[in-house]
Amino acid sequence: MLKLASKIRTDRVAASDGLLGVVNDVLFDDQTWALRWLVLDTGDVLPGRKVLLPPSALGHVDDEAHTLKVRLSKQEIKDSPDIDTDAPVSRRMESSLYAFYGWNPYWNTYAFMGDYGLAAAVSPSPVGAPRPGDQDGLDAGKAEGDIHLRSLHEINGYHMVARDGSLGHVRDALINDHDWSVRYLVVETGSWWSGHRVLISPRSVTSVNWSDRAIDLDIDQKTVRESPPYHDGMTVDRAYGERHRDHYGRVRELA
User: pLDDT tens for residues 96-112?
Assistant: First the structure.
């Protein structure tokens, strides 16, 4: 199922023994467009702390209750390493979390994420138990932040630039809650095509210019104008996805 990123950022998170907090942000890899971490605001449960949880730690997603369930207890999360979520997230930070929870880090074991990117294949072990290769990851990890790890909330408002001009700006993103990948960017076309919104696949992204807050695309305005329509509240199902993929696939074949 596809979920708006803005909705995920207001979802509650429930540990195995009760409510834990609310999702504050989502961090993704700007190369694979895979979600790496949920930034969780624990509120009164763990005052003064925010924690990072990999999407792979999530169990059942209760859309009606707007709740994400985590296969961890509150005590396990409370005992996890302190992470400064206001600082850039480094490989060393990530390694310490994976080592604590006894999971295979995503850079050691990958699985295909549907049509897009890669995701970590999590193999749980007893919490706190070391895994082979964890120390290698720590030794190889850099102290500075990962330049490809970005806030999904941050890209709201970024300009979308087609080969022949502006398309508008990012308004939201649609997340596949099965493989936790960014399936589409929701684009407000603004003055270029007033009153319309479109879905752009990360496959069309050629580069992200973080300093200029711009995303360059390998498509033109005509292609976007002729793509399957999108409006707020509509269900983006498999049939829509096939029409969208076929449309952009035909355009690339003719290019």
Answer: 777 877 776 666 544 43
